[in-house]
Write a structure and sequence with these properties.
Layout (H helix, E strand, L loop, with lengths): L1 E7 L5 H18 L4 E9 L2 E9 L4 E8 L2 H25 L7 H7 L2 H4 L4 H8 L29 H11 L3 E5 L5 E6 L5 E6 L1
Parallel strand pairs: 1-2
Antiparallel strand pairs: 2-3, 3-4, 5-6, 6-7
Helix pairs in contact: 1-2
Length: 197
């Protein structure tokens, strides 16, 4: 770490410089490379003051300490600076983005994808429909794989080939007109196409 030591009415000794360099190396590991430090030593009557300022890319940390001896003041100021750097690093790690809960993801999915329009009619026809009061929760199938979604517009034939080649049960794509479509591939070779409006 680049460091600048300044003594005001005080002589900066080699011991002070060595102690500062050792502690600043530890602080640099916390705040990252490219940081610089300024250390100012002052003496007022019977009190010695050490002020440590570490300037990193994203944050500035300052530690000031007073003591009867300059060595003790420097050590205390460096400890304060290191504690602030650690606290800043922890807060930075805790602020990382968290994954969305599944309920938020489901609220963004259009209803047609979860339950296609003709699903209720097919269920009634097969005799598996339940009364509205006793409705069973449907098994929502969420496909998190990004390869189950086409990046470019394609024809239905291309989409079927792509879904079969990737062995996907659900494949989302846009046709050449830009309309969103969903392919449901059953295990028996039957492919259903759902148009999302």
């Amino acid at each position: 770490m680049d460091s600048e030591l300044t003594g005001r009415n005080v002589k900066v000794t080699k011991d002070l410089r060595a102690m500062a360099d050792e502690s600043l190396d530890r602080i640099e590991k916390i705040v990252g490379r490219g940081a610089s430090a300024r250390i100012i030593f002052r003496s007022q009557k019977h009190v010695s003051i050490a002020e440590v300022t570490v300037i990193a890319r994203q944050h500035t940390v300052v530690g000031v300490a007073e003591a009867p001896d300059l060595t003790i003041a420097l050590r205390t100021a460096l400890e304060k600076t290191e504690k602030q750097a650690i606290r800043w690093r922890k807060s930075k790690v805790e602020k990382k983005r968290q994954a969305k809960p599944i309920s938020a993801v489901l609220s963004e999915v259009p209803e047609e994808i979860i339950a296609p329009k003709g699903a209720a009619a097919i269920a009634r026809k097969n005799g598996s429909a339940t009364s509205p009061g006793k409705r069973k929760p449907s098994g929502v199938h969420i496909v998190p794989a990004p390869e189950a979604m086409a990046l470019r517009p394609m024809t239905i034939e291309e989409a079927v080939k792509e879904a079969e080649a990737g062995d996907h049960q659900v494949f989302v794509f846009r046709d050449l007109a830009g309309d969103l479509k969903v392919l449901h591939c059953a295990g028996d070779g039957l492919v259903r196409l759902t148009e999302v409006s």
